[in-house]
């Protein structure tokens, strides 16, 4: 059984990136250049957290909005609610099911299995509204690729989390979630362990990848030009893992 997490102090070190990330750019190269500029380096035990937008941009997940042709019914619905029908059209195209559509809100399940607003399609922090940005085609694969490239360049196994900003049912405000994971276990299962009072834990499975994503969100904001950060001091559990491990199977989901 893995030892308990005995971390006493965590550091969250922002990585500002100068200039725009463009299709074909190497995310690893961009981040390593940014670290060099700040006179920082990744060390053993670090976790790299990256906002999905620079990954999506590098992978060319950009759609010119002037090429999107919504249906007449969708245009009418969007006009009634003061929305951009082109973004809604893309959101529907990127979804495998509509979870809820009411007034100005469209909640979908993406092909990745993520439940979020507008299938993660976004126009903020792109180019002022000319293009929409989609999620990476396979965020786990993107995380694994960045993990491998850093290992090749640095001779270090640095876990990588790719994150996005999600809303939550029953709670106001946005928070972060891990949508891609490589190099670490995204869940810490403490079932069977005993708490300090001797009680045996039965349901304690912590979504540490999401918790780390939220911690990173404190420095990686939409207005800061800081699309990545280092989390230092967290005793993660290395190994194979993916963000898909965080998606609850439909058979166990009481809200479907």
- Under the CATH scheme, the architecture of the largest domain is 2-Layer Sandwich
Counted up, domains total 2
Counting H and I runs of at least 4 residues, what is the number of helices? 6
- Unreliable segments of 5+ consecutive residues: none
Straight-line distance between termini: 33 Å
- What are the secondary-structure elements, in order, as H or E? EHEHEHHEEEEHEEEEHE
Percent range for β-strand residues: 15-25%
Q: Which class best fits the helix and strand makeup?
A: alpha+beta
The name of the CATH superfamily of the largest domain reads CofE-like
Rounded to the nearest angstrom, the radius of gyration is 19 Å
Describe this structure in words.
The radius of gyration is 19 Å and the shape is globular. α3 packs across α4. It has two domains: 11-61 and 136-247, CofE-like (60s Ribosomal Protein L30, Chain: A), CATH 3.30.1330; 63-131, CofE-like domain (CofE-like fold, Alpha-Beta Complex), CATH 3.90.1660.10. It has helices at 27-37, 52-58, 72-80, 85-93, 139-154, 208-217; strands at 11-15, 47-51, 62-64, 95-102, 105-110, 115-117, 131-133, 160-168, 171-182, 188-189, 205-206, 228-232. The protein has 256 residues and is α+β, with helices and mostly antiparallel strands. The longest helix has 16 residues, at 139-154.
């Amino acid at each position: 059984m893995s030892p308990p997490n005995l971390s006493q102090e965590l550091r969250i070190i922002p990585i500002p990136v100068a200039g725009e990330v463009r299709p074909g750019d190497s995310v690893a190269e961009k981040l390593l250049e940014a670290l060099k500029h700040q006179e920082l380096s990744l060390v053993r035990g670090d976790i790299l957290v990256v906002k999905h937008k620079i990954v999506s941009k590098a992978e060319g997940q950009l759609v010119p909005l002037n090429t999107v042709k919504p249906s007449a019914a969708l245009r009418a619905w969007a006009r009634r609610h003061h929305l951009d029908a082109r973004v809604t059209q893309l959101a529907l195209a990127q979804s495998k099911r509509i979870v809820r559509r009411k007034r100005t809100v469209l909640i979908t399940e993406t092909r990745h299995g993520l439940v979020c607003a507008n299938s993660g399609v976004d126009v903020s922090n792109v180019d002022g509204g000319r293009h929409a940005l989609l999620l990476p085609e396979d965020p786990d694969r993107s995380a694994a690729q960045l993990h491998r490239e850093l290992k090749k360049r640095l001779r270090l196994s640095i876990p990588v989390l790719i994150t996005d900003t999600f809303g939550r049912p029953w709670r106001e405000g946005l928070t972060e979630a891990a949508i891609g994971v490589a190099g670490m276990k995204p869940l810490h299962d403490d079932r069977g362990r005993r708490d300090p009072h001797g009680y045996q834990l039965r349901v304690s499975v912590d979504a540490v990848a999401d918790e780390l994503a939220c911690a990173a969100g404190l420095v990686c904001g939409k207005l800061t030009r800081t699309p990545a950060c280092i989390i230092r001091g967290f005793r993660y559990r290395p190994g194979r893992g993916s963000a898909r491990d965080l998606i609850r199977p439909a058979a166990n989901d009481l809200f479907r």
